[in-house]
Amino acid sequence: MDKYQAAFDAIIEKDDRVEPRDWMPDDYRNNLIRQISQHAHSEVIGMQPEGNWLLRAPSLRSKQVLLAKIQDEGGHGLYLYSVAETLGVSREEMIDQLHEGKAKYSSIFNYPALNWADIGAIGWLVDGAAIVNQVSLQRTSYGPYSRGMIRICKEESFHQRQGYEIMLHMAKGTPEQKEMAQDALNRFWFPSLMMFGPHDADSAHSSKAMQWKIKRESNDTLRQKFIDKTVPQAEFLGLTVPDPNCKWNEETGHYDHSPFDWDEFWAVVNGNGPCNKERLDHHKKAHNDNAWVREAAVAYAKKTESTLV
Amino acid sequence: MRITIDNDAAKFVVRLADTEMILGQRLCEMCSNGPFLEEDIALSNVALDLIGRAEQLYKIVSEIENKGLSADDYAYRRNEREYFCLKLVEQPNTDFAWTITRSYLHDVYANEVFKQLLKSDIPNLAGLSEKVLIEIRYNLTHARDWMLRLGIGTEESNSRVQGAVDQMFRYVPEIFHWDVVDNKYLSDTAAIEKSWKSEVSALLKEANIKEPELMDVVMRDYREGFHSEFLGHILTEMQFLPRAYPDAKW
Known about the structure:
heterodimer, A: mainly alpha, two-stranded antiparallel ribbon, 13 helices, B: Ferritin, 10 helices, globular
């Protein structure tokens, strides 16, 4: 084995962090670029379903909270694009890959946000599921990703509480509000659980990523953690989890659940979810319609820099 | 329920509140529609400043009026004719040049107004103005920098920003049609107009943008609740939930 590979293996073995200057196998680099760019795009595309309610937020406070939250998500996108750039890929290339359908983003954002309680459910369930995953990624083997995750987790846990606060208002509010809250839970429950990805046995990228310590816990372990944490929160709200088999199991010490609809999952992953085309078209349109703005900024910088010299 | 505003001080403050609120709502439309991520975040951040500012101003209105109405009631339960924002801030985000030009012309105005309100005797307004002026300094720098980039950048950006300025200037004269209420609470309205014109003229010149003549267009004054057709749509969307579910608390 060559000395570079040996040095890399030693870092992973000792649970140290791999840094941008270190040698790393191509597969490791590519696996990280795929995962981090997917994560960055998810943050950015995730601005759309929430933005869908920004203009209709029902109070001055809720509008400000939502604005601040969406701004955080955009900021997370920025950290993550920067992390990926340390691996030798540019933001421009990543955006091109997104537009060409070569890079993915979390499928959950292909579901529509249909009532105000969805904004609560997205914070509570979607950010909640993301945190369970991201907490474990704070120990990921790539240094810049791990440090980015530590910052992101702090903000995400705030978002989850904000989401839960909306759910609480809605669930304890008028009958119509409670109905909206239950409707949001019904629609977001299974898609949130499927956010953790396929079962361990069927996960294409999992085993290598675990071996390299990019990924620290398996999809199924993380999913179960989330279910166990979230079911009592739904009970506190007085809402019903839309799964008749979701019951506490004394033997396993976990909540059981029904089998997931993986056909739906793969349909959405492969572009046939409710909003896949709309989300991508929206991103392309904003990017393309504003090309002239970016060109103007570059031209201005060139003109003014030359006058400074 | 028709919400009237009876006290002169409240009439004065609600004009500012509505102007900041509607501009904030317009900038919210830019979320996920910016030219690149950093700018998307910047525009949201400015929107957040504006809506936070509107909320504080509505609280002052609510205290002066003392009718048991909250800041939210003022924002969410008044109709078009009961709103008192500048027509300038109702104008749409036709393109990024419109967004920036609208903000720039507003920010110069807001900066001058809040400077005079540092000595206001309306309760809490002087303190709020101090905080607001710090934000406006950033908002104005942001808008000003973009006016220069667009004006000087490329032929296309220059022509787009010129078009936006030509259009927006139609809504400027009403800003300076001060009435008794304005003159009661602003120490020197003539100075606001003078400073606005000299700042804007200088910037347009620096940015290679031709300064249009300020011509009075026949449009009734915003101080009487007269608006462009845009406001009705803005309010319809913004007020939908509290109007559809009047008993709900959010």
